[in-house]
Design brief:
heterodimer; A: 235 residues; alpha+beta; Ubiquitin-like (UB roll); Fumarate Reductase Iron-sulfur Protein, Chain B, domain 2; 2 domains; two-stranded antiparallel sheet; 9 helices; 32% helix; elongated; B: 590 residues; alpha/beta; eight-stranded mixed β-sheet; four-stranded antiparallel β-sheet; 22 strands
Chain lengths: 235, 590
């Protein structure tokens, strides 16, 4: 039997959150954490969490697993426990909890929207695609793959302290994804909108984002590129 | 019941996947008040899982490529029950729709010339099947669906589409004229129920692969649109046609793209034999998906499967080399390592045919308008109702969809539905308001569920349903066995309709949503079962052991499932494309 401790909070019935201890029969298999949650839910339908693709591409089931943010669907028990005897599941830190493992992601999405995460190019479009060399396209690798799971931003102390003013690693990764796109022509405007003491410069290079990203992306590196662009454009 | 709040829009789209967001984008761009209701944040929709690409004759890999060749392949792939006017529309308009996506920012992979990279996929040919394998599938590495879905969400953001994220539409509202005037929807976060009124309602709810126990589909693919349509008396077409994708990872069900075989991977049995050479001597591993899935199943059934149980075959990729795998198929390497504990760079991936795609759905014309058939057998448009993407059956896929055609379908027909709604709104739409009784009727399922005081567990019932479908309506089908399945489903219906909602809370109650989803899964499953038993032939993905041949005399037609009397009718396939000659049915070999 697997020991599980899970964060519970229902705003309609609980005055405050608590950790509930459970035992789950995994049949001795090295299940994914999401599979364990599904087993729990089949018995207690009041446990809630988000999930969709169950293969690590939709970004629904970001949560704090034994102290580290990650996607429940692609983390096997062996990795989650890594020596511990108990699986501990909590919501992503730093965002308001709606219920159980579900956090209110409005602030996270707001920071994403702030960077205008869409291509801006007001020159007339050609009859075919806008040409882009493989080298130019390669600059987008490691950026466009973000799945908006919020594991990084909610692992970032700078985002915890300034969620309204610091864009956060995920939003900045996307900001750089459009700065780096040869088809985008709004570089100056984008940089001007990021040029304040908080939006970018609150990053202190702690690199929690890099450590937790389930897609292996490196927001710190992207933030470094934006810093350089800001400093260059200032001189 | 107490009166519920009404919110009004020019167009409401149910579903925030590729089709829904493409339709929404079209409408938003034209300035109409547009809302998307999505049960998940849009980028978590199942389009995100599409990997290999979007097939379209943009003439990048081959400057002489021709959309008519793509049309030929699609008609052949459909085993001749795809509508040729719709396929013509999709293949000819496709390039424009792809270039729009590039202009919107989709990060396609590139060729040395700076154009969009295209890879070979199954069932594609040059020169009407005479010129060998074509490379026509536009790709963003092996994350094309992700790139597409995020780009469409970003485009909608830019155009101020209103999103009701984590809202769940439960039922269609039908007025006294039989027109659809909106939906009942529930805010998952607060539990509030509202009446969403709209001059046009678009169902873009995707597929229902979760009716099977083993599926590549996300948890959320529960056939909500089909359930809503059937409860409103709208028929569904060709719903017996389910695609089993050749390469789901054995055990996990997770998809590995056909692009693996497009890039040069191939299947082997336990003897290491490349067995597709026997079944499809020309196209081999890139034959139609139905053909490959059946061949794999036969290898397994005849004792040549791999692994201790002999229950899968291997997909060999290591000969492609680490560089190709990491640059062209990075997502696959990741998935295989996580779910199969196999590193494709060094070892083969265990795969098995897995439920993947619903070819059938709500019948529509090329403008996305939902269609029913009157007593005289004539098509009738259902006022106010549209459908696009996997939930719809235009039909461009017929009895078997080609890889790469689903993304094209959802972009092209999401767009065309948007264009048609825009035109209708400009000309003026006049639907009678639904009465309070009609609204209450649409909300009654939810009301009943909220009043349950006993009954069986949703999770248990869902498992039972999935097992019946897996066992009785799989890759190979047989009359007596299907009849037994239909009986089991009949017994299951009242139990599912009375499933117990123990948790009556309002805040983010996912138990309530799962119960409502189970009703929809059941509707899809029952329609599938009845239609499958009725179609007494083998065509495309529908392979019967008791009727092994295609029967063009009796079944070169669409099946129509009418929910009221649970009757199967027939509807003609369109053989009249506007600008090219008809592709006449031929024996289908690869």
């Amino acid at each position: 039997m697997l020991k599980v401790s899970i964060y519970r909070y229902n705003p309609e019935t609980d005055a405050e959150p608590y950790m509930q201890d459970l035992e789950v029969d995994t049949g001795g298999k090295d299940l994914m954490v999401l599979d364990v949650l599904e087993l729990i839910k089949a018995k207690d339908t009041t446990v809630v969490y988000r999930r969709s693709c169950r293969e690590g591409v939709c970004g629904s089931d970001g949560m704090n697993i034994n102290g580290k943010n990650g996607l429940a669907c692609i983390i096997p028990l062996s990795e989650a426990l890594s020596g511990s005897s108990k699986l501990v599941l909590r919501p992503l830190p730093g965002l308001p909890v709606i219920r159980d493992l579900i956090v209110d992601m409005s602030m996270f999405y707001k920071q994403y929207e702030k960077v205008k995460p869409y291509l801006i190019n007001n020159t007339p479009a050609p009859a075919i695609e806008r040409l882009q060399s493989p080298e130019e396209r390669e600059k987008l690798d490691g950026l466009y793959e973000c799945i908006l799971c919020a594991c990084c931003s909610t692992a970032c102390p700078s985002f915890w302290w300034n969620p309204e003013r610091f864009i956060g690693p995920s939003g900045l990764l996307q900001a750089y994804r459009f700065l780096a796109d040869s088809r985008d022509t709004a570089t100056e405007q984008r940089l001007a909108e990021l040029d304040d003491p908080f939006s970018v410069f609150r990053c202190h290079g702690i690199q929690n984002c890099v450590n937790v990203c389930p897609k292996g992306l490196n927001p710190t590196k992207a933030i470094g590129h934006i810093r350089n662009m800001l400093l260059t454009s200032a001189t | 019941m107490t009166t519920i709040r009404t919110i009004s829009f020019d167009g409401v789209i149910v579903g925030g996947g590729g089709a829904g967001m493409r339709a929404a984008l079209q409408l938003s761009q034209s300035g109409y008040k547009t809302a998307v209701i999505s049960k998940v944040f849009p980028t978590r929709s199942h389009t995100v899982s599409a990997q290999g690409g979007i097939t379209c004759a943009i003439a990048s890999a081959d400057p002489n490529d021709d959309w008519r060749w793509h049309m030929y392949d699609t008609v052949k792939g459909s085993d001749y029950i795809g509508d040729q006017d719709a396929i013509e529309y999709m293949c000819s308009v496709g390039p424009e729709a792809i270039f729009e996506l590039d202009h919107m920012g989709l990060p396609f992979s590139r060729t040395e010339e700076g154009r969009i990279y295209q890879r070979p996929f199954g069932g594609q040919s040059k020169n009407f099947g005479e010129g060998g394998q074509a490379a026509r599938t536009c790709a963003a590495a092996d994350r094309t669906g992700h790139a597409l879905l995020h780009t469409l969400y970003q485009g909608n953001m830019k155009n101020n589409t209103v999103f009701f994220n984590e809202w769940y539409a439960t039922d269609l509202i039908k007025n006294q004229d039989g027109a659809i005037t909106g939906v009942i929807a529930i805010c998952i976060e607060t539990g509030e129920v509202v009446h969403v009124k709209s001059k046009a309602t678009v169902l873009a709810t995707g597929g229902a692969g979760r009716i099977y126990a083993s599926t590549t589909n996300a948890h959320i693919n529960t056939g909500d649109g089909v359930g809503m349509a059937l409860r409103a008396g709208v028929p569904v077409q060709d719903i017996e046609m389910w695609q089993f994708h050749p390469t789901g990872i054995a055990g996990a069900g997770v998809l590995v793209t056909e692009g693996c075989r497009g890039e040069g991977g191939y299947l082997v049995n336990k003897d290491g034999e490349r067995f597709m050479e026997r079944y499809a001597p020309n196209a081999k591993d890139l034959a139609g998906r139905d053909v490959v899935a059946r061949s794999m199943t036969l290898e397994i059934l005849e004792g040549r499967g791999c692994g201790p149980e002999g229950d899968h075959v291997f997909l060999k990729l290591d000969h492609l080399g680490e560089e190709v795998l990491e640059s062209r198929l990075p997502g696959i390497c990741e998935l295989s390592r996580t779910f199969a504990h196999a590193d494709p760079v060094k070892e083969p991936v265990p795969v098995v045919p897995t439920c993947h795609y619903m070819m059938g759905g709500i019948p529509t014309n090329v403008d996305g308008q939902a269609i029913t058939v009157d007593a005289d057998g004539n098509d009738q448009v259902i006022p106010g109702l549209y459908a696009c993407g996997e939930v719809a059956c235009v039909s461009v896929h017929g009895a078997n969809r080609l890889g790469g055609n689903s993304l094209l379908d959802l972009v092209v027909f999401g767009r065309s539905a948007g264009l048609h709604i825009e035109k209708s709104l400009r000309e003026g739409v006049d639907l009678k308001d639904a009465t309070d009784d009609e609204i209450a009727k649409a909300a009654s399922r939810l009301t009943n569920l909220n009043n349950t005081s006993g009954g069986e567990s949703v999770a248990e019932l869902r498992k039972e349903l999935q097992t019946i479908m897996q066992n009785h309506f799989g890759v190979f089908r047989r009359g007596d066995y299907m009849q037994e399945g239909i009986k089991k489903l009949a017994e299951l219906r009242p139990r599912i309709e009375n499933a117990y909602l123990e948790d009556k809370s309002n805040a983010y109650n996912t138990a309530r949503i799962e119960a409502l989803e189970l009703h929809n899964l059941f509707e899809v499953a029952e329609a599938t079962a009845i239609a499958a038993e009725e179609r007494k032939e083998s065509r495309g993905a529908h392979a019967r052991e008791d009727f092994e041949d295609r029967d063009d005399e009796n079944w070169l037609c669409h099946s129509m499932y009418f929910p009221g009397e649970k009757r199967i009718g027939k509807r003609s396939v369109n053989f009249e494309p506007k600008t090219v000659d008809t592709f006449e049915p031929k024996v289908r070999t690869y």
